[in-house]
Amino acid sequence: MPLPTFATLEEVPEPFRSYAREDAGRIVLDLVEGADVVGLRQNAATLLTEKKALQAKYADVDVDEYRNLKTGKKTDIDARLTAAALEKAELQSQLAAIGTARRTDVKRAEIMRALADAGGTVELLEPIVSTMVDVEDIDGRMHVIVRDAQGTPRYKDGAGTRFGLSDLLAEMKAKPTFQPAFNVKVGSGGGAAPGGAGGPMRVIDASDKKAVLANLDDIRTGKARLAS
User: Model-level pTM?
Assistant: First the structure.
């Protein structure tokens, strides 16, 4: 009984492809003479039937279209991941802005309270004190700390006791430069125009610490005012 031949290598059952060779334009199995090929024929017929069944089952499937769909799905997933990353970045930015605003509010509230306790003039001293303090987050709670000119936290002693706002204001109050800004009493006035002698009132930039210090007396007497 002659051995079966095949038009292409793909038609040869997988277990017997290692025995396949080309002969006169056909693929033949290079088996020893007299070998029993009944099993081979049955296997080949079974595989061919299964192949045809699969081809019939997926006859309507466009391979290129399927690949494009997979590519499209991947693109959609990538787009969603990118959108999620952008949304996360925006949320983090908003949280950072909220944190900054909270720190600013805590800082100003603590300065106002300390100035009230020390009898300091808020309009004169808040812009100056604000440059000397900062806010740090310890275990989820905001604390105002006093820093030196290099930005290092100040301590009162070698035991690590922090230099507080009350300590800072007491220090400033002892200096002649700042004394006019503490316990300022505003008179009832005699109808004189602000600025004295009917002249226009000068405006001092509150963020200019040197200008504020140089004009404390004029600010206290109403000849000048602060503007933020």
Answer: 0.44
